[in-house]
């Protein structure tokens, strides 16, 4: 088991609270080339009735709903859930002033505590690659969806953020980067096949975007937020890495360009 799916590591370190995710989201929000941010784009893909029950698995600190708070239909009943209690608490606090019908639960996607056919939609935004038993989770998602309901599952491709992986390895070739995108067990290249075992049809919509990073510190914070370098760790070498990134950025004319490969699967439960 890698750290991608190790629940002890994910719950105890990587996602104990939202600080690591905050650092990564900050880089994307500040330096993305697409003027439409990720969460509004995802929300645009939801073609749901005015009255609907929606479950988000792995909602983290609730960014999807925080960034679309004024767009949530009054008739939606939304359950935000995460495996991490810290994430659930953060989401609930951040959305305390939202007038939408929101509920908050700690849920393991492999054992969803709701009756069959409850939800019109289930959202899994960049989280299925962290589930140890994905077939079990997908069977659970299919079970709690209504006939004709849909799963919206976001993930990355194997080339996502490749330039950052290369930058880290150039700093120290001994590093084994366990969160490198080609190690992602649920990605754009194989997600359709995995989802197709439980849903039909399955559609993939790509989000066109890249990063044009012009500041060193957010890139350093992103790299250190991963916390998953099993050999040749960056730990204790932040100043060295910062100096290295500064020099690399100067060589490239004051910016480091990073390709993003991200998309959203829309998987239908047969009616």
Tell me about this structure.
With 271 residues, the chain is α/β, with parallel strands linked by helices. The protein has a domain of 189 residues: Rossmann fold (3-Layer(aba) Sandwich), CATH 3.40.50.150. It has 10 helices and 11 strands. The strands form 3 sheets. The chain has a 7-stranded mixed sheet with strand order 3-2-1-4-5-11-7, sandwiched between helices. It has a two-stranded antiparallel sheet with strand order 6-9. Helix 9 crosses helix 10. The protein is globular.
Uncertain stretches of 5 or more adjacent residues: none
Quick one: biggest sheet? 7 strands, mixed
Number of strands: 11
The CATH homologous superfamily of one domain corresponds to Vaccinia Virus protein VP39
CATH architecture annotation name of one domain: 3-Layer(aba) Sandwich
Strand order of the largest sheet: 3-2-1-4-5-11-7
Straight-line N-to-C gap = 36 Å
């Amino acid at each position: 088991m890698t750290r991608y799916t190790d629940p002890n590591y994910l719950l105890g370190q990587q996602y104990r609270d939202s600080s690591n995710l905050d650092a990564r989201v900050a880089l994307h929000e500040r330096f993305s080339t697409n003027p439409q941010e990720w969460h509004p784009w995802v929300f645009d893909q939801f073609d749901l009735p005015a009255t609907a029950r929606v479950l988000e698995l792995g909602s983290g600190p609730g960014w999807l709903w925080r960034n679309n708070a004024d767009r949530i239909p009054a008739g939606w009943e939304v359950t935000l859930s995460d495996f991490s209690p810290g994430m659930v608490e953060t989401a609930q606090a951040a959305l305390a002033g939202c007038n939408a019908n929101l509920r908050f639960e700690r849920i393991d996607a492999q054992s969803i505590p709701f009756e069959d056919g409850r939800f019109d939609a289930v959202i899994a935004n960049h989280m299925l690659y962290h589930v140890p038993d994905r077939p079990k989770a997908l069977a659970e998602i299919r079970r709690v969806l209504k006939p004709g309901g849909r799963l919206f599952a976001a993930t990355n491709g194997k080339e996502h953020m490749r330039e950052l992986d290369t930058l880290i390895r150039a700093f120290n070739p001994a590093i084994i980067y366990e969160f490198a995108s080609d190690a992602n067990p649920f990605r754009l290249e194989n997600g359709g096949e995995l989802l197709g075992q439980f849903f039909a049809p399955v559609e993939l919509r790509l989000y066109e975007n890249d990063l044009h990073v012009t500041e060193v510190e957010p890139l350093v914070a992103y790299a250190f937020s991963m916390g998953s370098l099993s050999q040749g760790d960056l730990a204790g070498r932040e100043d060295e890495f910062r100096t290295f990134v500064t020099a690399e950025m100067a060589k490239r004319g004051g910016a480091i360009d990073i390709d993003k490969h991200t998309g959203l699967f829309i998987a239908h439960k047969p009616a």
